Amino acid sequence: MFTNLPALVAHADWGSDPEKRWMAFAVRQKDGDYLAHSPKLVGDLNKFIECLRVCSGGATIMIGFDFPIGLPRQYAEKVKVDNFLELLPQLGEGEWRQFYCVAEKCDEINLNRPFYPKRPGGTSQAHLSHGLGMNIADLRRECEREVRKDGKLIRRAASPLFWTLGGQQVGKAAIIGWREVLSPALKIGDVAIWPFSGHLVDLLERCGVVIAETYPAEYYSHFEKPLLGENKSKRNQEHRKECAKILFEWAANVPVKFTQVMRDSLEDGFTLSKGGEDPFDATVGLCGMLNVLLGNKPLYEPQDERIRRIEGWILGQSQ
Predict the structure, then answer these.
(1) Is pLDDT larger for residue 220 or for residue 272?
(2) Both 45 and 119 in a single domain?
């Protein structure tokens, strides 16, 4: 467990559609326990972090975002960037003015305009690979690569950062997150992004806002029993309902309590909207973050400077 725990922990399940951006948060009580509140829509991105600051009473907050934070190292080498946080405020301006402009045609793709495609129809990842002069595998960060152990698939490879088409794509979420949230937050100050800004224990002691990348699906296996076992889907309300007991048992053994509304939402499988998987993942992400902060899940902090300065890492993901 970290000795200097944040007063408020929040997790935002992210999407390009505002109706798919949900946040769950927990506030530390006087007795030291965290009280977890039921998810709600993120809402106005310009006010998001400031609203959390107010809820914490000005004390330290930690926010997890379910979108990529960092660049593939091979791409960074090509554009001669060795520090993601130094580059981030420049994106969308000057020589990087077209960075967030998703290429409509394959001949528009270049190193300073890497996101593609703007819409479906006659597109392929081969276009992206050719336009950037890189293999698709090299457009994934270390934490996004396929992992196998003893020949068994442990983690599937993620969609490449700059690809913006299909249900697995993360490019559109990254654009919104970087441009509308992270870049403005860094300009305000007193904001750190792990692991780029330093070790988590140090950041929690000296910064008002600490941000980390998260991935709810990573956390499904972090509890005593897997939240969604084989042939189970987060899109199925009955399958989500089955996860309530597992999370209740977990919370009973750590300093975490759920509000009654949160308990009801878990037991009901999150029927807040037709997209119940979004508030579900917001909740799982929050519990996954608390699991790390409370010492139930070891924190892995990469030692490779290229990861710490350029690529970033997913909170709670092992090596």
Answers:
(1) 220
(2) no
Boundary residue ending a domain (176, 206, 228): 176
| Residue 1 located in a structural domain | no
CA distances from 25 to 65, 272, 284, 318 (A): 12, 16, 11, 24
Q: Smallest Cα–Cα separation from 183: which of 81, 58, 99, 116?
A: 99
Written as six digits, the tokens of 162 are: 């700059």
Residue from 317, 318, 258, 319 nearest 287 by CA: 258
Q: Are residues 168 and 83 in the same domain?
A: yes
317 within domain boundaries: no
Cα gap 311→319, rounded to integer Å = 14
| Residue 315 CB neighbours (<10 A) | 28
List, for residues 121-142, the tens digit of each pLDDT value: 999 999 999 999 999 999 999 9
For residue 254, is it within any domain? yes
What is the enclosing helix (H) or strand (E) of 154? strand 152-155
* Structure tokens given for 282: 């917001």
> Is 273 a residue whose pLDDT tops 60?
no
